[in-house]
């Protein structure tokens, strides 16, 4: 059975994962200018660049908090509902947030894709809720 709280948690995870993606892209701007001699120094310089960059660090921490909420939600939510719901809706949040930040996102075909994703997720959630409701109706009373 899917509760309203579980659905809201899944929406929160999708929003945290999806909405932070465009901000993470913006936060990594300039990393291509970091140059060091060997591979280990290059790696450490890039890590330093990212973790001292507030424009990257704040969205990264919000994204990771979505992972914590997802992990906690999986304890009570059906995996076959949670994973497709969160992954597909995070794409919608990514496209919507990117558009708000001025990124191009694909025009009419992208809008159609978002509508189809939202409709599919809605059907999955409604199906899960109706299955749990009908399971309660068909139980036999104990004597």
Automatic annotation (TrEMBL):
Q: What is its main location?
A: membrane
- Per the record, the domain of life is Eukaryota
Q: Where in the cell is it found?
A: Membrane
Q: What GO cellular component is one of the record's annotations? A: membrane
Signal sequence region? 1-18
Indicate how the chain sits in the lipid bilayer.
Multi-pass membrane protein
Q: Which UniProt keywords apply?
A: Membrane, Signal, Transmembrane, Transmembrane helix
Q: Family membership, please give it.
A: Belongs to the TMEM234 family.
The protein in question is named Transmembrane protein 234
């Amino acid at each position: 059975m899917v509760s309203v709280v579980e659905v809201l948690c899944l929406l929160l995870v999708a929003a945290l994962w999806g909405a932070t993606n465009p901000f993470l892209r913006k936060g990594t701007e300039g990393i291509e200018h970091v140059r060091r001699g060997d591979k280990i120094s290059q790696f450490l310089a890039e890590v330093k660049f990212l973790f001292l960059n507030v424009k990257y660090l704040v969205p990264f921490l919000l994204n990771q908090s979505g992972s914590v909420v997802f992990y906690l939600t999986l304890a009570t939510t059906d995996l076959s509902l949670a994973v497709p719901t969160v992954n597909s809706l995070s794409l919608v949040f990514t496209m919507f947030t990117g558009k708000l930040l001025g990124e191009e996102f694909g025009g009419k075909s992208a809008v159609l894709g978002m509508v189809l994703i939202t409709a599919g997720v809605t059907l999955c959630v409604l199906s899960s809720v109706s299955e749990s409701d009908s399971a309660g109706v068909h139980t036999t009373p104990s004597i």
